[in-house]
Specification:
Order of helices and strands: EHEHEHHEHEHEHEHEHHEHHEEHHHHH
Distance between the termini: 73 Å
Strand content: 5-15%
Shape: elongated
CATH architecture of the largest domain: 3-Layer(aba) Sandwich
Radius of gyration: 24 Å
Oligomer: single chain
Structural class: alpha/beta
Length: 428
Protein backbone atom coordinates (compact mmCIF):
# COMPACT_ATOMS: atom_id res chain seq x y z
CA UNK A 1 0.00 0.00 0.00
CA UNK A 2 1.34 3.41 -0.95
CA UNK A 3 0.88 6.00 1.81
CA UNK A 4 2.60 9.10 0.41
CA UNK A 5 5.86 10.57 1.61
CA UNK A 6 7.50 10.51 5.02
CA UNK A 7 10.04 13.22 5.82
CA UNK A 8 12.88 12.84 8.33
CA UNK A 9 15.10 15.64 9.65
CA UNK A 10 17.56 16.23 12.49
CA UNK A 11 17.88 19.44 14.51
CA UNK A 12 20.10 20.72 17.30
CA UNK A 13 23.47 19.33 18.33
CA UNK A 14 24.61 15.81 17.42
CA UNK A 15 24.06 12.88 19.77
CA UNK A 16 25.08 9.21 19.49
CA UNK A 17 22.27 7.17 17.97
CA UNK A 18 20.83 9.63 15.45
CA UNK A 19 21.56 7.28 12.59
CA UNK A 20 19.80 4.47 14.44
CA UNK A 21 16.57 6.50 14.50
CA UNK A 22 16.96 7.45 10.83
CA UNK A 23 17.55 3.81 9.89
CA UNK A 24 14.65 2.39 11.90
CA UNK A 25 12.18 5.06 10.76
CA UNK A 26 13.25 4.65 7.14
CA UNK A 27 13.00 0.86 7.14
CA UNK A 28 9.65 0.81 8.93
CA UNK A 29 8.35 3.67 6.79
CA UNK A 30 9.21 1.87 3.56
CA UNK A 31 7.81 -1.39 4.87
CA UNK A 32 4.56 0.43 5.61
CA UNK A 33 4.32 1.92 2.11
CA UNK A 34 5.91 5.36 2.52
CA UNK A 35 8.44 6.95 0.21
CA UNK A 36 11.03 8.37 2.62
CA UNK A 37 12.73 11.74 2.13
CA UNK A 38 15.67 12.73 4.33
CA UNK A 39 15.99 16.51 4.62
CA UNK A 40 19.47 17.97 4.98
CA UNK A 41 20.51 20.15 7.92
CA UNK A 42 17.34 20.19 9.96
CA UNK A 43 14.92 23.00 9.16
CA UNK A 44 17.65 25.17 7.59
CA UNK A 45 16.82 24.73 3.92
CA UNK A 46 13.11 24.14 4.44
CA UNK A 47 12.87 27.48 6.26
CA UNK A 48 14.56 29.12 3.28
CA UNK A 49 12.01 27.61 0.88
CA UNK A 50 14.58 25.35 -0.80
CA UNK A 51 12.91 22.30 -2.36
CA UNK A 52 16.12 20.54 -3.43
CA UNK A 53 17.98 19.74 -0.20
CA UNK A 54 16.70 16.26 0.46
CA UNK A 55 17.67 12.67 -0.29
CA UNK A 56 15.33 9.84 -1.15
CA UNK A 57 16.26 7.17 1.40
CA UNK A 58 16.18 3.45 0.68
CA UNK A 59 16.71 0.46 2.92
CA UNK A 60 20.10 -0.12 1.31
CA UNK A 61 21.07 3.45 2.26
CA UNK A 62 20.38 2.93 5.95
CA UNK A 63 20.70 -0.76 6.79
CA UNK A 64 24.26 -0.48 8.12
CA UNK A 65 24.26 2.97 9.71
CA UNK A 66 22.68 2.24 13.11
CA UNK A 67 26.05 1.62 14.78
CA UNK A 68 27.66 4.75 13.34
CA UNK A 69 27.95 8.07 15.13
CA UNK A 70 27.00 11.39 13.59
CA UNK A 71 24.06 12.00 11.27
CA UNK A 72 23.88 11.07 7.60
CA UNK A 73 21.41 13.95 7.22
CA UNK A 74 23.53 16.51 9.04
CA UNK A 75 21.90 18.83 11.56
CA UNK A 76 21.31 22.53 12.19
CA UNK A 77 19.83 24.79 14.87
CA UNK A 78 17.56 26.80 12.59
CA UNK A 79 14.31 27.78 14.32
CA UNK A 80 11.49 28.12 11.75
CA UNK A 81 9.05 29.17 14.47
CA UNK A 82 11.00 32.40 14.79
CA UNK A 83 9.16 34.02 11.87
CA UNK A 84 5.92 33.56 9.97
CA UNK A 85 7.85 33.54 6.69
CA UNK A 86 10.13 30.70 7.72
CA UNK A 87 7.26 28.57 8.99
CA UNK A 88 5.25 29.29 5.83
CA UNK A 89 8.25 28.17 3.75
CA UNK A 90 8.55 24.93 5.70
CA UNK A 91 4.91 24.04 5.23
CA UNK A 92 4.93 25.14 1.59
CA UNK A 93 7.92 22.96 0.67
CA UNK A 94 6.55 19.93 2.52
CA UNK A 95 3.19 20.35 0.79
CA UNK A 96 4.73 20.75 -2.67
CA UNK A 97 6.85 17.63 -2.14
CA UNK A 98 3.81 15.68 -0.99
CA UNK A 99 5.06 15.04 2.55
CA UNK A 100 2.16 14.00 4.77
CA UNK A 101 4.13 12.67 7.75
CA UNK A 102 7.25 14.03 9.43
CA UNK A 103 9.72 12.55 11.92
CA UNK A 104 11.88 15.16 13.63
CA UNK A 105 14.90 14.16 15.71
CA UNK A 106 16.27 16.64 18.21
CA UNK A 107 16.15 18.30 21.59
CA UNK A 108 13.68 20.70 23.13
CA UNK A 109 14.18 23.42 20.51
CA UNK A 110 13.57 21.03 17.61
CA UNK A 111 10.55 19.64 19.43
CA UNK A 112 9.23 23.20 19.83
CA UNK A 113 9.65 23.78 16.08
CA UNK A 114 8.01 20.43 15.30
CA UNK A 115 5.00 21.34 17.43
CA UNK A 116 4.58 24.49 15.33
CA UNK A 117 4.72 22.47 12.12
CA UNK A 118 1.88 20.31 13.37
CA UNK A 119 -0.19 23.23 14.66
CA UNK A 120 0.33 25.51 11.65
CA UNK A 121 -0.21 22.60 9.28
CA UNK A 122 -3.70 22.15 10.74
CA UNK A 123 -3.53 18.36 10.52
CA UNK A 124 -2.23 18.16 6.96
CA UNK A 125 1.13 16.88 8.21
CA UNK A 126 1.35 14.30 10.96
CA UNK A 127 4.34 14.90 13.22
CA UNK A 128 6.31 12.62 15.53
CA UNK A 129 9.29 14.01 17.42
CA UNK A 130 12.06 11.71 18.68
CA UNK A 131 13.78 13.32 21.70
CA UNK A 132 17.54 13.47 21.47
CA UNK A 133 20.15 15.14 23.64
CA UNK A 134 23.24 14.07 25.53
CA UNK A 135 22.06 16.54 28.21
CA UNK A 136 19.20 14.20 29.24
CA UNK A 137 17.09 17.23 30.15
CA UNK A 138 13.79 16.49 28.37
CA UNK A 139 10.84 15.56 30.62
CA UNK A 140 10.36 11.93 29.59
CA UNK A 141 8.39 9.61 31.90
CA UNK A 142 10.15 8.47 35.04
CA UNK A 143 13.87 7.87 34.60
CA UNK A 144 13.66 7.24 30.83
CA UNK A 145 16.80 8.81 29.35
CA UNK A 146 17.05 10.77 26.14
CA UNK A 147 18.95 8.79 23.55
CA UNK A 148 22.63 9.65 23.30
CA UNK A 149 23.02 10.36 27.00
CA UNK A 150 24.17 6.89 28.00
CA UNK A 151 26.75 6.73 25.22
CA UNK A 152 28.05 10.23 26.01
CA UNK A 153 28.36 9.33 29.68
CA UNK A 154 30.11 6.06 28.81
CA UNK A 155 32.85 7.70 26.77
CA UNK A 156 33.01 10.69 29.11
CA UNK A 157 33.84 8.38 32.00
CA UNK A 158 36.74 6.84 30.05
CA UNK A 159 38.15 10.29 29.27
CA UNK A 160 37.79 11.43 32.87
CA UNK A 161 39.52 8.33 34.22
CA UNK A 162 42.50 9.02 31.96
CA UNK A 163 42.64 12.65 33.08
CA UNK A 164 42.40 11.60 36.72
CA UNK A 165 45.40 9.33 36.26
CA UNK A 166 47.30 12.19 34.60
CA UNK A 167 46.35 14.44 37.53
CA UNK A 168 47.65 11.88 40.02
CA UNK A 169 50.86 11.31 38.08
CA UNK A 170 51.68 15.00 37.64
CA UNK A 171 50.22 16.39 40.90
CA UNK A 172 47.80 18.80 39.27
CA UNK A 173 44.09 19.56 39.19
CA UNK A 174 41.80 19.45 36.18
CA UNK A 175 38.72 21.62 35.83
CA UNK A 176 36.44 19.83 33.37
CA UNK A 177 33.49 21.65 31.81
CA UNK A 178 30.81 19.16 30.81
CA UNK A 179 28.06 19.93 28.32
CA UNK A 180 24.61 20.43 29.79
CA UNK A 181 23.01 23.79 29.06
CA UNK A 182 19.90 23.49 31.21
CA UNK A 183 20.62 20.63 33.61
CA UNK A 184 23.53 18.83 35.22
CA UNK A 185 22.69 15.22 34.31
CA UNK A 186 25.73 14.63 32.07
CA UNK A 187 28.22 16.32 34.39
CA UNK A 188 26.91 14.41 37.39
CA UNK A 189 26.60 11.14 35.48
CA UNK A 190 30.22 11.32 34.35
CA UNK A 191 31.62 12.70 37.59
CA UNK A 192 29.83 10.20 39.80
CA UNK A 193 30.64 7.14 37.68
CA UNK A 194 34.29 8.17 37.25
CA UNK A 195 34.68 9.04 40.95
CA UNK A 196 35.73 12.64 40.28
CA UNK A 197 36.78 14.51 43.40
CA UNK A 198 34.01 17.02 42.88
CA UNK A 199 31.06 17.72 40.55
CA UNK A 200 29.22 21.05 40.58
CA UNK A 201 25.84 21.45 38.87
CA UNK A 202 23.37 24.37 38.75
CA UNK A 203 20.63 22.45 40.56
CA UNK A 204 22.62 22.17 43.79
CA UNK A 205 22.20 25.90 44.42
CA UNK A 206 18.41 25.42 44.60
CA UNK A 207 17.59 28.77 43.04
CA UNK A 208 20.08 30.81 45.06
CA UNK A 209 22.41 33.23 43.24
CA UNK A 210 25.41 31.56 41.61
CA UNK A 211 28.71 33.38 41.26
CA UNK A 212 32.00 32.39 39.69
CA UNK A 213 33.72 33.29 42.96
CA UNK A 214 31.41 30.98 44.91
CA UNK A 215 31.98 28.09 42.51
CA UNK A 216 35.73 28.76 42.67
CA UNK A 217 35.64 28.57 46.47
CA UNK A 218 33.85 25.19 46.34
CA UNK A 219 36.72 23.92 44.17
CA UNK A 220 39.31 25.51 46.45
CA UNK A 221 37.63 23.89 49.46
CA UNK A 222 38.08 20.50 47.80
CA UNK A 223 41.72 21.28 46.98
CA UNK A 224 42.43 22.28 50.60
CA UNK A 225 40.65 19.26 52.02
CA UNK A 226 42.61 16.86 49.82
CA UNK A 227 45.89 18.61 50.66
CA UNK A 228 45.12 18.28 54.35
CA UNK A 229 45.31 14.52 53.83
CA UNK A 230 48.32 14.49 51.52
CA UNK A 231 46.70 14.46 48.07
CA UNK A 232 47.87 17.20 45.73
CA UNK A 233 45.74 16.33 42.71
CA UNK A 234 42.15 15.94 41.64
CA UNK A 235 39.46 16.44 39.00
CA UNK A 236 36.53 18.83 39.35
CA UNK A 237 33.62 18.53 36.89
CA UNK A 238 31.49 21.61 36.24
CA UNK A 239 28.25 21.62 34.25
CA UNK A 240 28.35 24.29 31.56
CA UNK A 241 24.85 25.32 32.61
CA UNK A 242 26.52 27.16 35.48
CA UNK A 243 27.24 29.87 32.90
CA UNK A 244 23.54 30.61 32.48
CA UNK A 245 22.97 30.36 36.22
CA UNK A 246 25.61 33.04 36.73
CA UNK A 247 24.27 35.11 33.86
CA UNK A 248 26.15 37.69 31.87
CA UNK A 249 26.49 40.04 34.87
CA UNK A 250 27.78 37.25 37.07
CA UNK A 251 30.41 36.31 34.53
CA UNK A 252 31.54 39.93 34.12
CA UNK A 253 31.84 40.35 37.90
CA UNK A 254 34.27 37.45 37.99
CA UNK A 255 36.83 39.29 35.86
CA UNK A 256 37.05 42.78 37.43
CA UNK A 257 38.93 45.32 35.37
CA UNK A 258 38.76 43.09 32.31
CA UNK A 259 36.25 42.55 29.57
CA UNK A 260 34.45 39.24 29.29
CA UNK A 261 35.39 39.35 25.61
CA UNK A 262 38.76 37.98 26.73
CA UNK A 263 36.99 34.65 27.23
CA UNK A 264 34.87 34.75 24.10
CA UNK A 265 31.89 36.53 22.63
CA UNK A 266 28.44 36.99 24.09
CA UNK A 267 26.39 35.36 21.32
CA UNK A 268 22.84 34.01 21.42
CA UNK A 269 21.35 31.41 19.08
CA UNK A 270 18.01 31.47 17.24
CA UNK A 271 16.28 30.26 20.38
CA UNK A 272 17.70 33.03 22.60
CA UNK A 273 20.21 30.87 24.47
CA UNK A 274 23.73 32.02 25.24
CA UNK A 275 26.05 30.17 22.88
CA UNK A 276 27.93 28.48 25.69
CA UNK A 277 30.52 27.09 23.31
CA UNK A 278 31.54 30.66 22.49
CA UNK A 279 32.62 31.35 26.08
CA UNK A 280 35.80 29.75 27.42
CA UNK A 281 34.17 29.02 30.75
CA UNK A 282 36.87 26.54 31.78
CA UNK A 283 39.64 29.08 31.23
CA UNK A 284 37.66 31.73 33.05
CA UNK A 285 37.13 29.43 36.04
CA UNK A 286 40.76 28.34 36.00
CA UNK A 287 41.87 31.96 36.16
CA UNK A 288 39.45 32.79 38.98
CA UNK A 289 40.49 29.73 41.00
CA UNK A 290 44.20 30.41 40.37
CA UNK A 291 43.89 34.03 41.50
CA UNK A 292 42.04 33.09 44.67
CA UNK A 293 44.52 30.29 45.42
CA UNK A 294 47.41 32.73 45.10
CA UNK A 295 45.66 35.07 47.53
CA UNK A 296 45.70 32.15 49.96
CA UNK A 297 49.39 31.49 49.32
CA UNK A 298 48.84 28.32 47.28
CA UNK A 299 50.47 27.85 43.90
CA UNK A 300 49.65 24.84 41.78
CA UNK A 301 49.00 23.74 38.20
CA UNK A 302 45.41 23.86 37.01
CA UNK A 303 44.32 22.58 33.60
CA UNK A 304 40.94 23.38 32.07
CA UNK A 305 39.28 21.14 29.49
CA UNK A 306 35.89 21.21 27.78
CA UNK A 307 34.20 17.84 27.50
CA UNK A 308 31.32 17.32 25.12
CA UNK A 309 32.23 17.67 21.48
CA UNK A 310 34.27 14.46 21.81
CA UNK A 311 31.09 12.66 22.88
CA UNK A 312 28.37 13.90 20.53
CA UNK A 313 29.28 11.91 17.42
CA UNK A 314 30.61 8.78 19.11
CA UNK A 315 29.42 5.40 17.87
CA UNK A 316 26.45 4.46 20.09
CA UNK A 317 26.91 1.83 22.76
CA UNK A 318 24.47 -1.13 22.58
CA UNK A 319 21.98 0.61 24.89
CA UNK A 320 21.49 3.52 22.48
CA UNK A 321 21.74 1.31 19.38
CA UNK A 322 18.79 -0.72 20.66
CA UNK A 323 16.89 2.22 22.12
CA UNK A 324 17.01 4.25 18.89
CA UNK A 325 15.60 1.33 16.91
CA UNK A 326 12.63 1.35 19.26
CA UNK A 327 12.22 5.10 18.87
CA UNK A 328 12.40 5.13 15.06
CA UNK A 329 9.98 2.23 14.81
CA UNK A 330 7.70 3.80 17.41
CA UNK A 331 7.64 7.13 15.56
CA UNK A 332 6.33 5.52 12.37
CA UNK A 333 3.84 3.39 14.30
CA UNK A 334 2.47 6.54 15.94
CA UNK A 335 2.22 8.37 12.59
CA UNK A 336 0.07 5.52 11.27
CA UNK A 337 -2.21 5.53 14.31
CA UNK A 338 -5.55 7.37 14.59
CA UNK A 339 -4.05 9.47 17.41
CA UNK A 340 -1.59 11.09 14.99
CA UNK A 341 -4.56 12.67 13.25
CA UNK A 342 -5.57 14.31 16.52
CA UNK A 343 -2.24 15.58 17.85
CA UNK A 344 1.51 15.73 17.28
CA UNK A 345 3.66 13.97 19.83
CA UNK A 346 7.03 13.35 21.40
CA UNK A 347 7.84 9.63 21.18
CA UNK A 348 8.81 7.93 24.41
CA UNK A 349 9.06 4.41 25.76
CA UNK A 350 8.02 3.27 29.21
CA UNK A 351 8.39 -0.33 30.38
CA UNK A 352 8.93 -1.43 26.78
CA UNK A 353 5.78 0.25 25.50
CA UNK A 354 5.68 3.20 23.12
CA UNK A 355 4.11 6.23 24.79
CA UNK A 356 3.28 9.26 22.60
CA UNK A 357 3.38 12.48 24.65
CA UNK A 358 1.18 15.23 23.22
CA UNK A 359 3.00 18.44 22.34
CA UNK A 360 0.33 20.47 24.17
CA UNK A 361 0.89 18.55 27.39
CA UNK A 362 4.67 18.87 27.15
CA UNK A 363 4.68 22.66 26.70
CA UNK A 364 5.13 25.09 29.56
CA UNK A 365 1.89 27.12 29.52
CA UNK A 366 3.75 30.29 30.56
CA UNK A 367 6.66 30.20 28.13
CA UNK A 368 5.24 28.01 25.36
CA UNK A 369 8.40 25.94 25.62
CA UNK A 370 9.13 22.43 26.80
CA UNK A 371 9.72 21.79 30.46
CA UNK A 372 13.28 21.00 31.49
CA UNK A 373 14.04 17.89 33.51
CA UNK A 374 16.46 18.90 36.24
CA UNK A 375 18.61 16.69 38.43
CA UNK A 376 16.62 15.77 41.53
CA UNK A 377 18.94 17.08 44.22
CA UNK A 378 16.55 15.97 46.97
CA UNK A 379 16.84 12.25 46.19
CA UNK A 380 19.19 9.57 47.45
CA UNK A 381 20.96 9.27 44.09
CA UNK A 382 22.27 12.84 44.37
CA UNK A 383 22.83 12.38 48.10
CA UNK A 384 25.03 9.38 47.29
CA UNK A 385 26.98 11.42 44.73
CA UNK A 386 27.68 14.14 47.31
CA UNK A 387 28.77 11.64 49.95
CA UNK A 388 31.55 10.44 47.65
CA UNK A 389 32.73 13.92 46.66
CA UNK A 390 35.42 15.92 48.39
CA UNK A 391 33.73 19.09 49.68
CA UNK A 392 33.84 21.28 52.74
CA UNK A 393 30.99 20.15 55.01
CA UNK A 394 29.49 21.46 58.27
CA UNK A 395 31.29 18.68 60.17
CA UNK A 396 34.64 20.07 58.99
CA UNK A 397 33.96 23.25 60.96
CA UNK A 398 32.58 21.46 64.03
CA UNK A 399 35.51 19.08 64.54
CA UNK A 400 38.35 21.07 66.14
CA UNK A 401 41.08 18.73 64.92
CA UNK A 402 39.72 18.69 61.37
CA UNK A 403 39.37 22.47 61.30
CA UNK A 404 42.97 22.87 62.50
CA UNK A 405 44.18 20.63 59.66
CA UNK A 406 42.27 22.54 57.00
CA UNK A 407 43.30 25.96 58.30
CA UNK A 408 46.97 24.90 58.44
CA UNK A 409 46.99 24.20 54.68
CA UNK A 410 46.45 27.92 53.97
CA UNK A 411 48.32 29.21 57.05
CA UNK A 412 45.16 30.49 58.72
CA UNK A 413 43.81 30.29 62.23
CA UNK A 414 40.66 28.20 62.63
CA UNK A 415 38.63 31.38 63.12
CA UNK A 416 40.08 32.91 59.96
CA UNK A 417 39.31 29.74 57.99
CA UNK A 418 35.76 29.69 59.32
CA UNK A 419 35.30 33.34 58.39
CA UNK A 420 36.67 32.75 54.87
CA UNK A 421 34.96 29.49 53.92
CA UNK A 422 32.16 28.97 56.41
CA UNK A 423 29.61 30.54 54.09
CA UNK A 424 29.94 27.51 51.79
CA UNK A 425 28.22 25.36 54.43
CA UNK A 426 25.75 27.97 55.65
CA UNK A 427 27.80 29.46 58.49
CA UNK A 428 27.56 33.21 58.96
Amino acid sequence: MKRGKLGILVGGGPAPGINGVIAAATIEGINQGYEVLGFRDGFKWLAAGDQQRYTKLTIDDVKRIHLRGGSILGTARTNPAKSETSMHNVLDVLQKLGVTALVTIGGDDTAFSASHVYRKGAGAIRVAHVPKTIDNDLPLPGATPTFGFETARHYGVHILRNLAEDARTTSRWYIIISMGRAAGHLALGIGKAAAAALTIIPEEFRGKPVTAEGVADIIIGAIIKRRAYGSHYGVAVLAEGLIESMGEKGLVSAVPGENLERYGKIVRDDHGHLRLGEIEFGRLMKDVVTQRLEELGLKMTLIDKDLGYELRCADPIPFDAEYTRDLGYGAVKFLLSPEAGKYGAVISFENGKMVPLQFEKMLNPETGRFQVRKVNVEGESYECACHYMIRLEPADFQDVTQLDKLAAVVAMTPDQFRARFGYLVGLK
